[in-house]
Amino acid sequence: MKFMKLGSKPDIFQTSDNVTAVASDLVSDISIEVDGHKFLLHKFPLLSKSECLNKIMKGEKGINKDEVVLPDFPGSVESFEMCAKFCYGITFTLNAYNVGAVRCGAEYLEMSEAIEKGNLIFKLEVFLNSSILRGWKDCIICLQNSKSLVPWAEDLKLLSRCVDSISFKTAVDASKVDWSFTYTRPLPSSLPQSSDIKPGSPPWNGSHSRRHHPVPKDWWAEDICDLDVDLYWRVMVSIKAKGAPPDQVGEGLRLYALRWLPGVSKEQTTHDSARMLNGALAGDFVETSTKHRALLESLVSLLPPEKGSCSCSFLLKLLKSATILNASQASKMELAHRIGLQLEEASVHDLMIPSLSYANDSLYDVDLVQLILEHYLMQETSPPTSPVRSRRVPFEHRRTRSAEQLDVVDSRRSTAATHGSKLRVAKLIDGYLAEIARDPNLPLVKFVQIAESIPDFARPIHDGLYRAIDMYLKEHPGISKNDRKRISRLMDCKKLSMEACVHACQNDRLPLRVVVQVLFFEQVRTAMSGGLVDLPQNVRALLPHSQEIAFTEANGSISPGRTVDENWETVHEDFKVLKGDLAAMKIRLAEAEKERGNLQAQQQPVKNLKSKSGFPLFRPKKLLNRLFPGLLGDYSKRPVIGSLPGKRTNPYSIP
Question: Has this prediction a pTM greater than 0.90?
Answer without folding.
Answer: no
